[in-house]
Amino acid sequence: MASLPLLINERSEPVAQKKGKVNIKKRMTLLYVLMLSAMILLLIRTGYLQIIKGPSLKQLAIEQQTRDSVVSSERGTIYDRNYKVLAQSASTNMVCVVPVNIKEEGNGEEVARALSEILDLDYEEVYAKTQKNSYYEIIKRRVEAEEVEKIRALNLVGIRLDADTKRYYPNGSLASHVIGFTGNDNQGLWGIESVYDDVLKGKAGRIITAKSANGSDMPYEYEQYMDPIQGRDVVLTIDETIQHFVEKHLETAVAETGVQNGAACIVMNPKTGEILAMATKPDYDLNQPMTISDPAVLESLKSLSGEDYQSAYSAELNKLWRNKAVVDTYEPGSTFKAMVAAAALEENAVSLNSSFFCSGSKTVSGVPIGCHNRNGHGAESFEEAVHNSCNPAFIEIGAMLGKQQFREYYKSFGFGETTGFELPGEAEGIFFSESQMRELELATSSFGQGFNVTPLQMITAMSAVANGGYLMQPYIVKQINDENGNAVEVTQPKVVRQVISAETSRTMCNILEGVVSEGGGKNAYVKGYRIAGKTGTSEKQPRGCNKYVASFLGFAPADDPQLACIVILDDPVGEYYGSLIAAPVVGRIMEDSLRYLGVERQYSAAEERESDINMPDVTGKTRAEAAKIINEAGLKYFVSGNEEGVVTTQMPRAGTAVRKDAICIFYMEGAEEENVVVPDVVGYSISDVNYLLANSNLNFMLLGTGRLHAEGVIQSVRQEPAPGTEVPQGTVIQVEFRYAGNE
Ligand SMILES: [Zn+2]
Question: What is the 357 CA–ligand 1 centroid distance (Å)?
């Protein structure tokens, strides 16, 4: 419109020259302008009708001629990698009314009264729906069969019973942060249910019935049925069994450490980037995603009311739904040393012959930076520096690598950008800009401080260290199948880039295995499974707040990695070192998962020496025969009762796994088993535990890291049965030992 006056000016020519010509021209111009304006107005009007009012007018036209009802399509199933069901739709019914028919019949009150009674709904609300100017109103979805039958029996005009579906999550809270949930209309709201909503939901069918504008039947009434298109199935890379192990051990750790800000764990196939398990604690029941059940949270909301309560409740729900493993960032601490060491080796900035010296601290740009070992690690090789997780050595390693290369490897290992993972909300992490990164920042970055990463980035980077050097793109959707089970889309493992050489990767696998067998990661040790990894403990911001993130990042077996695993414990109460509280969790998850996958244990020479034996059967033997058998097995014995006759019972029983220095008690004919009280043996060294239990004629079995490691560095942390329990003499007491390292 604004351009019209300009048009007239351009068309106006000098007035004085030829009047007649000017007049004609003027009239033509005027006509032209009028026509143009009319055309524009017409265009605007039709455009308005078509574009702005179009849909509603069209809708009106359809509604005047037809009544249209929805036939829901069945939502696809979500499976784990072995086709165990994680989310499934079951058919139920929905109750609807047809207001035009009700008006014709004049039975609105009767219908509303019946439905509100049977379905336990508000009468007024149901009545209002029966009086609407429409052809179809949903009264209630997911109605139980029993109620449906009652309604059907009434045989009332204007009520429709249609098929409906309901979403079930057979495992409740399992993998809740991954699977997500649907809303009242079966629409995906969270997690895979939301991201893959279009794939899962299919397309609803319709029933269209022709009607005249006033609602009466048309002379040639017709009904048209359009089949719904079924949703497709989503098969995840998750292994339900490994997910169970992860959730079980993570829950125990949460209970034991009292974490204030939750916990997360990821298990990945380091060769492909497939996510085998992903868990966040606390979790929620997918069948009731809008319900908070944690009594502490409910208590904290108690004082609120009205809108304050509503908004606080939904804030808590949002917190509960957060997939910590992907969305939250944290300071990686010493786990990051694995990547720094790999980069330094790859660039030949260090070699296995490099040596370092730790006096307990190192001064950078005038700032003294301490080692976790205040007394200093002294002279150490590169390998020992990694085993010791020595900060001063890593400050040197970082400096030898240099700022430019440090930054390049940071990016190359996948930090500072999202991984391209399917689930939403992935964080990129925070790192120093080039100008921010001076000598001091390079120093702290070298031992994993001053920047933030996600657990998903860390396990992906560690997988590259472990798998021969390839950064894989992590993924959780294995394939999409049509309703007949045929794959329509299969995800292939994707190499993002090669970060380090196969040789550097092999060297790092050896060094990181040593962290668990020799260094600060001893508590992740599992007999026979060659676990490699790195511990991490970082203080949260602001420094001095006394809040920590404890973590362990590992893989196994070291010579052919099948699994990578990260555990994050955010703000534990009491013990907060990753080596003490996160490493044992990874050890337990690895042990269960590797056994489940059928990975064979390989015992080292030291493990062979420490291996268990099964108690031989000596019942029915004479004292001499029994003694010979026990001595040949390398065990000791003790006789209770008469030396004559035969052994009637023995303790430990035949077949019990015992240590090689176990004592077997022979109960001869007539002798009765004697009970003893189990002493408290928590907080002692192996030899002290041995002494205390032998004094009570009890045997013991070493659990945890105690199997491999020397006297002095490990301590008993748990026993079973508990102190004070009465048990028969000779019973095997299970005692778990833990390495007391503080890193
Ligand atoms: Zn040190």
Answer: 8
For 340-414, where are the E strands, in sequence order? 355-358, 361-364, 367-370, 378-381
Pairing assessment for the beta strands 636-640 and 66-71 based on DSSP bridges: unpaired
Neighbouring-strand partners of residue 646: 622
The separation between CA 99 and the C-alpha centre of its own chain, rounded to angstroms, equals: 47
Ligand 1 centroid to 410 CA: how many Å? 23
**CA 688 to ligand 1 centroid distance, Å:** 30
pLDDT tens by residue, 507-549: 999 999 999 988 888 888 888 899 999 999 999 988 889 999 9
Distance 394 CA to ligand 1 centre (A): 9
Give the model's pLDDT for residue 145.
Answer: 85
* Domain 612-739 of CATH type 3.30.428.10: no
Matching residue, tokens 């964080």: 427
Where does 337-457 show beta strands of DSSP type E? 355-358, 361-364, 367-370, 378-381
Indicate the domain borders of the chain. 4-52, 67-234, 326-602, 612-739
pLDDT computed for residue 61 by the predictor: 43
Report the distance separating Cα 357 and Cα 368, nearest Å. Answer: 15
Per DSSP, 464 falls in state H
In angstroms, what is the span from residue 367 Cα to ligand 1's centroid? 16
| 273 backbone φψ class: left, alpha, beta (φ>0; ψ -120 to 50) | left
Q: At residue 477, what is the residue type? A: V
Q: How many CA atoms lie within 13 A of 625 on its CB side?
A: 12
CATH code assigned to 67-234: 3.90.1310.10
* Residue whose pair of structure tokens reads 């809303």 in the numeric block: 183
- Whether 300 sits among the annotated catalytic residues: the reply is no
Distance from residue 379's CA to the centre of ligand 1 (Å): 9
The residue annotated as part of the active site, out of 72, 89, 176, 334, is 334
- Helix, strand, coil shares, percent, the chain, to 5: 35, 25, 40
Rounded (10°) CA dihedral 252, 254, 257, 259: 180
pLDDT at 708: 55
The model's pLDDT over 539-572, given as tens digits with 9 standing for 90+, comes to 998 888 999 999 999 999 999 999 999 999 999 9
Q: Is 570 helix (H, G, I), strand (E, B) or coil?
A: strand
pTM to 2 decimal places: 0.78
Nearest to 200 by CA among 183, 217, 214: 183
Rounded CA separation 704/169 (Å): 35
Superfamily grouping for domain 326-602: DD-peptidase/beta-lactamase superfamily (3.40.710.10)
